[in-house]
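Hi everyone,

Forwarding the result from last night's run.
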Amino acid sequence: MIARPAKDRYYLDIARVVSSRSTCLKVLIGAIIVRSDQIIAAGYVGAPRHTKSSLEHGFCLRRHLKIPSGTQYELCRSVHAEQNAIINAARAGVSLLGGDMYIYGETQENRQPLFAFPCFICKKMIINAGLNRVIVSHPEPESLLIFKVDDWAKEWEAQDIIDDKCKYGQRDRTES
C-alpha cells in the first residue's frame, strides 16, 4: 500500500515548490494559504511586480550595503513570501479568515531547509489576516513546526508586542 503524506506535510511540500520561484540571492521561501482543504493563495520572496529583482540585477542590495541580517527590511528589493501570499489573495478578492499558512524556506547556496518562522512584520499581517495556524519548515529533515496564530495575539495581549520581537530576535530565519 502506498503511504500518503499527512496533509500538513503535503501542503508544506507545495510551499517548497512555490519557493523555487524566489528571486532572492540568499534564500528561497514560499508560502501558501489553505482554507477548507483548498489552496487559496501562494507567494514567494520576490521583487514587486514589474520591477527588477536581485536576481536580475545580479547582486543583493542588502549585502552590498552590508546591512545585518534581520534589520532594515525596507532596504530589500524583495517582498516576503508571506506578504505576497496575503497580497495575492487580496488581488483575487479571496478571504483568508480561518485559513492556514504554510511557509517553506531553504538557503540558496546549499538548499538546506530553514526554520521559516515569519518576521515581526509578517507575523502582524498574519494575525490581522485572520489566519488560524502557521506551519513552517525546520532544518531537521522532514520536520515541521505548527503555531496557533491566536496564541501569538494572546501573548501580545498579555505583554508588550515589542517584548516578543526581542524574545524571538529580529527574524528567526536567514534574512531575505
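The longest strand covers residues 27-35.

Cheers,
N.
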